[in-house]
Amino acid sequence: MKTYAERNRALLHFIAVPTILLTAGLLGGLRIDAQTRQFIFIAPPLVTLVLAILLGSLFVRAGAIDLSRWVAIEQPTLNNLSHLLTLLSLFFATAQAFNSVLPESGLLHWMFSFFFLWTLWTNQFSNFDARRLLKSIMVLFGTAFVFKHLLVSALYAPDGGLLRTIASTLLKGISIDVPAFAPATGYVSFFALILYVSGLLLIAPNPSPPDESSVDKLAVREEMLSESSNQSSGVELNDTVPK
Amino acid sequence: MQRKFIQIIGVIWTLLYASVIIWIYATEPRSFKEVATNTQVAAGTYEINQEKFDNGLNLFRRDQFRAARDEWAGADPAQRDPRTQFYIAYACYREGWGRVYYDDALFREGLAAVDRAINLNPNGTLSVDDPNLQMHTAAELKAELEQGTETSWRDLNPMKLFRTRK
Questions:
Q1: In this predicted complex, what is the ipTM?
Q2: Which of A156, A238, B19, B140 is deepest in the core (most CB within 10 A)?
């Protein structure tokens, strides 16, 4: 049982998590051209790398990643190497997740970038725990996804309807350059974000497996606790018995 | 021991997968077909579609240059065959050639194709033995295309009306 758990944990940490993150990175820059239905691969712009660094520092500050446990001089080289690769995959996936929800060019690109930068910068000075940070990230990416792939793409779709008419009236004279992509781009982006969040959920703050001694200690402690609870319940029962 | 083995597999797999992703972003394939073609190029097993190439050659000999270029583009989708690129450049030259003026856009397209042909040739000199052509080397063709795109006083020479297409 213990061997299975160890093996599964190793498979998860060393193979599944990097694969999920790298796949999120691969899909994050993929767009489908509206007319030709051809692939367009967009490498992460510089601003997404800055955003990824800011989010990375939030992970460390919130304790979602205990950097001293991930890469340490006391650890074997192989451990450090595999952990470093996972962290690099996380960085790449984060940059591509931002790339996926940022408009590609024009005024909206800079507006979205500014809002992301503002949010992440102000969060640097807030108190976060890992769980709250994860929820906050999910909301951040979810909102950006809805704005880009539902609202903005609907506004600038060839058959945009009422929404498009309103937008073109409101923004008359302001040039907002939004490239047209096929609806499949939204699906690709959605899966990229799902994979990214799944990867984040699977990443452990401390990648080192619990050593045998601590496992044994935990088992003994649990046994003692269960024994004591049994005794106390027995006492209670005895107390309730009428004399 | 098992954990270490999985760790090694994980490191190799991650490096391999990351390299594939970088390669995809570097080559920017536009379809799954192009991914397959690029893979063949990377593996060194890429070959042109000979049937399409021959069709293109027949069209070229009948002066149907645009159709010939389309066939050759299909025959060499990765633009990795120097001979095909030479013929594409030649088709651009012949279609763009005019007694009074040259078609600049076609000559530039031809120049790009002949440059690809020269760069793809490992020896640097590409020679095509085709009796129907009057220029047999990529260098000759490139010089002709370059002259066509340049503007000079010679353009005003009325004698150019008597020049012949190569």
A1: 0.78
A2: A156
